[in-house]
User: Which sequence fits this backbone?
């Protein structure tokens, strides 16, 4: 299947009205590229290691509209609408933009076209994710078979299919957390994984001897991914509870998570999120429990360590892998 992408150079202030006007000619939905700073709420919904650099906001924006092509190259714009050529659609868009100039400033307003192939975005990334090792743990995606020709014998094999939730374990921050969890884990202990994603930290802890786990996340894709990975590794799903919500500022989530009941609290997020999270995480910890935090870029570890100290914790270690750091503190 092929798609025609029609791109409009405009102004950020005109995005909404332009998108609405384009619906009248059969273009529904648009990809927006601009430099408008993210709100605090939007940042919370971004499940990434590093927030994207948006650059200086110059007021400009680019809107991309994607329209399916039929076998003859004509555009299919909606139910009941007659197919049209890309050139005809471009002309209609330009007419809409000209009409809008009587009410607002759409900026440059130029329209360009290019063709793009249909891609299976859900599965295409799998070609880049292959089995790897974290010391004596073999992490392997569900679509591969173990390769141990070099004589490597893992003490534990972890099967993972991240689905649409973040977390394969390949990232340095995840590996730092796993090593610290192993160092501090005791048989039957209880672990809280804040920002659990695909559940790799909590599930591995359960496989290594933890008793029960709780994972929190903002992403609605996380619970099904965690459930799939629990089952893939033969871990009883009843041993792990998933809570959707924000531990930092949601009293309902804080109550559901509980107080003074975890031996390990792990959070592999971002330094900027860890700092406000730490005061909310400490009440969940037992006396003598460990807080393991990663997702910290080199140079920001002291910012997180200071937040631990202000919350009454003792910083026990700061470990490194590449440009990433992990701060471990004890209550």
Assistant:
């Amino acid at each position: 299947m092929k798609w025609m992408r029609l791109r409009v150079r405009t102004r950020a202030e005109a995005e909404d009205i332009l998108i609405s006007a384009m619906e009248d000619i059969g273009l529904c939905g648009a990809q927006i590229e601009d430099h408008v700073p993210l709100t605090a709420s939007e940042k919370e919904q971004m499940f990434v290691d590093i927030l994207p650099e948006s650059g200086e906001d110059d007021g400009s924006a680019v809107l991309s509209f994607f329209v399916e092509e039929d076998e003859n190259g004509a555009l299919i714009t909606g139910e009941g609408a007659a197919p049209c050529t890309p050139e005809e659609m471009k002309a209609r868009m330009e007419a809409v933009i000209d009409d809008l100039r009587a009410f607002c400033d759409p900026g440059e307003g130029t329209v360009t076209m290019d063709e793009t192939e249909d891609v299976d975005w859900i599965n295409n990334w799998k070609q880049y994710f292959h089995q790897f090792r974290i010391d004596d743990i073999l992490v392997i995606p569900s679509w591969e078979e173990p390769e141990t020709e070099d004589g490597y014998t893992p003490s534990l094999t972890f099967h993972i299919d991240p689905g649409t939730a973040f977390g394969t374990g390949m990232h340095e921050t995840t590996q730092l957390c796993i090593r610290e969890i192993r160092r501090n884990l005791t048989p039957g202990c209880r672990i809280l994984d804040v920002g659990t994603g695909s559940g790799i930290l909590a599930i591995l802890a359960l496989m290594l001897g933890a008793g029960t786990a709780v994972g929190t996340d903002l992403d609605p894709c996380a619970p099904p991914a965690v459930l799939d990975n629990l089952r893939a590794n033969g871990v009883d799903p009843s041993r792990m509870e998933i809570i959707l919500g924000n531990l930092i500022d949601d009293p309902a989530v804080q109550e559901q998570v509980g107080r003074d009941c975890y031996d390990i609290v792990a959070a592999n997020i971002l330094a900027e999120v860890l700092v406000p999270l730490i005061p909310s995480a400490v009440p969940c910890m037992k006396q003598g429990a460990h807080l393991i935090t990663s997702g910290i870029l080199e140079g920001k570890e002291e910012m997180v360590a200071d937040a631990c100290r202000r919350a009454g914790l003792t910083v026990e270690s700061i470990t490194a892998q590449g440009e990433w750091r992990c701060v471990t503190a004890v209550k």
Notes: The mean pLDDT is 85. The first strand starts at residue 2 and ends at 11. DSSP finds ten helices and 15 strands in the chain. The radius of gyration is 24 Å.
